[in-house]
Design a protein that fits this description.
By secondary structure, the chain is α/β, with parallel strands linked by helices. Helices cover 43% and strands 22% of the residues.
Length: 189
């Protein structure tokens, strides 16, 4: 169930899309265009949802401002699916030898359009999925995401071992992650 709602806050009116679904927590999101969405458990009242948005209104206003002030990076040209796959496969080929030395088997690459993440790892099934939007990012950022997913074959979570491996293999990965966040606004959503 999706519903457009508006609440009055000390910063003025905030409109948001309320979605009731099978979730445990209230999940607030501000997208690239400043649109506010709130997902809530099925049992959550409209009053509780509105109050949550009012309580988080300072965060919403700050987040909208921050997104509006971010520079928009130059995107690489749009490619067809086949060319996109080839480009992302080359990133995987460049990064795989860096984890192969630790006994990681070569995963299968899948690609798909994703709204909220650049990639994910399915270590038990032996494959990784990369976001097709990555083909519009510079090569070093595609390589960073590919490596990030490959390191999940060594460490399945984002614990200290995962970060220590990333530091050892690609010391500049934090800088790349910051740079990639600029592309969130340009190509995700």
């Amino acid at each position: 169930m999706e519903q457009l709602r508006t609440v009055q806050t000390q910063w003025g009116e905030i409109s948001y899309t309320l979605t009731k679904k099978r979730v445990k927590n209230l999940n607030l999101r501000v997208d690239t265009h400043g649109t506010v969405s709130l997902s809530v458990p099925l049992c959550c009242s409209l009053h509780a949802a509105d109050e949550f948005v009012i309580r988080k209104s300072a965060w919403i206003v700050a987040h909208r401002k921050k997104k509006a002030e971010r520079p928009v990076p130059k995107l690489l040209p749009e490619l067809g699916r086949e060319a996109c796959f080839a480009l992302l496969e080359r990133s995987l080929e460049r990064m795989y030898p860096l984890v192969a030395v630790y006994g990681v088997g070569k995963p299968v690459l899948k690609i798909r359009k994703m709204r909220t993440q650049w990639g994910n790892c399915h270590w038990m099934q032996g494959y990784i999925t990369l976001n097709t939007a990555l083909h519009r990012c510079p090569e070093h950022l595609r390589d960073y995401v590919a490596l990030h997913e490959l390191v999940h074959f060594l460490y399945h979570d984002h614990g200290s071992g995962f970060y220590a491996s990333m530091d050892a293999i690609m010391p500049e990965w934090r800088e790349y992650r910051r740079e990639l966040r600029l592309f969130d606004l340009a190509v995700l959503d």
